[in-house]
Amino acid sequence: MKEQLKHVYLFANLDDAQLGRVQEMSRGITLDDGQVLFEVGDEAPRFFLVRSGQIKLSRISFNGDEKVIELVGAGQTFAEALMFAQIPAYPVRAAALGRCELLAINSKGFLDLLRGSVESCFRMMGDMSLRLHKMVDEIDRLTMQSGTERIARFLCAQYHAEGEREFALAAPKGVLASRLSVKPETFSRILHRLADEGLVKIRASRVEILDPERLCGYSMSGF
Amino acid sequence: MKEQLKHVYLFANLDDAQLGRVQEMSRGITLDDGQVLFEVGDEAPRFFLVRSGQIKLSRISFNGDEKVIELVGAGQTFAEALMFAQIPAYPVRAAALGRCELLAINSKGFLDLLRGSVESCFRMMGDMSLRLHKMVDEIDRLTMQSGTERIARFLCAQYHAEGEREFALAAPKGVLASRLSVKPETFSRILHRLADEGLVKIRASRVEILDPERLCGYSMSGF
């Protein structure tokens, strides 16, 4: 179990004695599909690690619909933000999607452990800030990716409609960006990237398609 | 300036007196395009907030190529993970992309401020873990989005090739998932979602296209 805990950002930087204490303040829980772990407003003395399966966090809206806030998968924790913010009640409902194994960790015990060692807090914060940076990057990459697919497809469609390798963009860049659901600066970065890869040549508002095959295959590649 | 600091996760939960101390330990820096802030191996006594412009963090590979590690934009911090991990030297080079305004904050001073208040650490960790959850969600959403576009396009292409609304999937789901660069479980979730939206009907390995126009328009919508 210690090995599994070390992959979780909250525990990754704890030493062996600290991990032992975490185990002492934890207990395993198994839920069947649909079983509720807690309801909105329940007292919140614990946070959780999903060991297998998936937990659905949701709220019920005014008109009675269930709004899914988050799906938490294996290896991820939930309710630890409440613990840090010392919020006393769960603001959402948690229920199992499929069979689900959890570890429930006593929040007060865990905070006491951290209170005794500000250096552990710093290590954890270092790890969290690295993760944040990686995710900002990943989001940027994914945004670029789906934007690149849309732009490549758009340029291919215009190329096929024109029947010419070189043509003027069908609308001003700002308009195209909005139509293709990317920010104007992302639109420019993507055009530059397609040019860097030798797929197109851009001069002001004119485009020359240098490699129609690769450009038009781009959107299926998922690169 | 205090107002700007409050939007940064590292400072969002500090009280007014603490923010005042952060200002005392900070100084403004302006860089011109291409100007280097620090090189790999330079001593690392400060971390930074980008106030405007963009900073490029990079390493030089063995063959002399520059590998961009991260682009840091306005409102984001960098090198704070080093501070928390108490790493003494910058492992990357930082240079301005375009004109760039920074705030340089003394790392030791900031850690001392936090050392004096483990409750500030907890508030910051609460904020960081909320941000991590939101980003996991955003990454999931973006992955689903580009996956949905690819799958919708694939189904449209097969529909046009078959000339029939109902047909067997061209390959087993696992093979299609891999070909469309999505995980098998994401592939299933996306098919369910397209079915929930009334675009297709799925029975085992057979697909019926219920709404070809919306399905084939899906990939351009960016929804």
Write the layout of secondary structure elements.
The structure is a homodimer of 223-residue chains.
Chain A: H1 2-5, H2 16-24, E1 26-31, E2 36-38, E3 46-60, E4 66-72, E5 77-78, H3 80-85, E6 93-106, H4 107-115, H5 118-162, E7 166-168, H6 173-179, H7 184-196, E8 200-203, E9 206-209, H8 212-221
Antiparallel strand pairs in A: 1-6, 2-6, 3-4, 3-5, 3-6, 7-9, 8-9
Helix pairs in contact in A: 5-7, 5-8, 6-7
What does it look like?
Chains A, B: One of its GO terms (molecular function) is DNA-binding transcription factor activity. Chains A, B: This is Transcriptional regulator. Chains A, B: Keywords: DNA-binding, Transcription, Transcription regulation. The structure is a homodimer of 223-residue chains. By secondary structure, chain A is α+β, with helices and mostly antiparallel strands. Chain A folds into 2 domains: 2-116, Jelly Rolls (Sandwich); 137-221, Winged helix-like DNA-binding domain superfamily/Winged helix DNA-binding domain (Arc Repressor Mutant, subunit A, Orthogonal Bundle). Helices cover 46% and strands 26% of the residues of chain A. Chain A has helices at 2-5, 16-24, 80-85, 107-115, 118-162, 173-179, 184-196, 212-221; strands at 26-31, 36-38, 46-60, 66-72, 77-78, 93-106, 166-168, 200-203, 206-209. In chain A, strands 1, 2, 3, 4, 5 and 6 form a 6-stranded antiparallel beta sheet that branches. Chain A has a 3-stranded antiparallel beta sheet with strand order 7-9-8. The longest helix of chain A has 45 residues, at 118-162. The radius of gyration of chain A is 25 Å and the shape is elongated. Chains A and B meet through strand 5, helix 3, helix 4, helix 5 and helix 8 of A and strand 5, helix 3, helix 4, helix 5 and helix 8 of B.
